[in-house]
Here is the input.
Amino acid sequence: MYEGVVQDLIDELGRLPGVGPKSAQRIAFHILQADPADVRRLAHALAEVKEKVRFCGICGNVAQDEQCRVCQDPRRDPAVICVVEEPKDVVAVERTREFRGRYHVLGGAISPIEGVGPDDLRIRELLARLADGTVTELILATDPNLEGEATATYLARMVKPMGLKVTRLASGLPVGGDLEYADEVTLGRAFEGRRLLDV
Amino acid sequence: MTLFRDDGLVLRTQKLGEADRIVTVLTRRHGRVRAVARGVRRTKSKFGARLEPFSHVDVQFFARGGELVGRGLPLCTQVESIAAYGSGIVDDYARYTAGTAMLETAERFTDHEGEPAVQQYLLLVGALRTLASAEHDARLVLDAFLLRSLAVNGYAPSFEACAQCGMPGPNRFFSVASGGVVCGECRVPGSVVPSPESMELLGALLTGDWRIVDSCEERHAREGSGLVAAYLQWHLERGLRSLRFVEKSAGL
Here is the structure.
């Protein structure tokens, strides 16, 4: 056991995900030896993230204001909405620099075995956004696992009467892998979604 | 340090750490087994989509001790698909919710890990195959699976002879606590009187007479499902989480 404040710091750090007692101790001593300005910046960032960050009123992404950066940006195409499960997925799609539309974060996927049903996700908010007719395409970018597929099927059925163009992200072989290691489901999907090589 | 090889159905997956998952597999020879699949969530994982729920797989486990279940969780080292029922099930929301309820039921009836439950395993394989083929209504396939799961675990309800005194049927009253239909003499307070058609449907679901099942009316199917759910809940003591989503989706 260390002197009061040091032990308090170790205990607090130890409550973070993936940080055990030894790692907590190592981080605590790193902080003790670090430059005071660095430590102040870290403390400031921690306090600020809790104070300022909230969820965007439109898409459900993490935001600093009422609305997130994407929803505020007038250059983003309001006619296309990309539906994702988590705010982390927004970042993943943004990194591709391919997509210029807007997002909708569901907050998870339908998983009856875990007790998560359609009413526990932000599906009602999505349908409200689609109601005014500005959106012409809905891209379903839920995870390519079973729960994500089920959520996509459910959403596609819900919005069908609205007459939108509903698309699903392609699945197939990862770039840089070997064909022999591909599983049947993935390889089957890759065949389904094969494209014409126009040389 | 022992390797085990078995075939099984993936019942459930849970996230573990950065890129791993704990998969629950109902195997043919070792019953329900929980094992760690390292790196399965990475896009370039060698497991790919093989360890998703509803997959029928041939799997190799690596266990630390001489037993598959006991000293920590075994590792999945190699997996090959036998049949991927997932894609046929997930295409339709009613089939998906019915399928998840089957997986949860199978998990609940195989409480003891490592204890073989061959009948439950074979029943689940058959049920998932039927469900994925979309030959019959998803909710009826689920009800048939639930009734037969109850039967192989020793809780078979009676739909003809009285469950108490054995008086030959048809009998009018149905009591969950008494174990099925009861005669006028044996009826207990709280017994219900379902329609004769619903009783016939339940009997057909239990024995697998799909000719009768496929020609049933919606209201009888609905009444039958209610009785099956009540009967299952009584014997499992706790309700199934996924069952309430099945009921919702059937109304859509």
